[in-house]
Amino acid sequence: MTSPNEIAVLDSNGWHAETERIGLRTFDARDLTLFLEYRNDEEIARLQGWETPYTIDEAYEFFEDLANIPPGTPGEWHQFAIVDKATGVTVGDVGLHVRAADPSTADVGYTIARKYQRQGYASEAVGAIIEYAFDVVGVRTIFANALAENAASRRVAERVGMALDKQWFTNDGAELVRYSIVN
Hints:
5 helices; alpha+beta; Aminopeptidase
């Protein structure tokens, strides 16, 4: 797992964390173009289960909602922009959802824009979020779900130390897998 230089800092610029290569921070207007690009990418949307099109108004509302949700709030997803520190470019996002019914458990999700995939960004970001969830939020178990066919997402989970613990089919016949890691 990647060890962040700073696990979590809340300052005048919002929440952020850093690893050697990436920064994780609250979304803002700088991220809008790329965010809309990957939210409207049909293949990414299919793998994530999103509806398209995703409008600019929806993106602004999403960013505004995130600005008002502290990371680790039980029952709420919080997505963080993943920024390449060398270039300043946002490459995707990583999310944490601490479960309201059992705050000792959480879910992690991740999306990388197509042009930045297969460069290790997701693994580094997920590793940082897992460390944050364990060390700062106090979560004990973290889960990640993916379509079974999404080999790249499965590799990310495995690279950060998660183990496959469940497979099932949805009512519409999609095969899903769940990975987990315990602190």
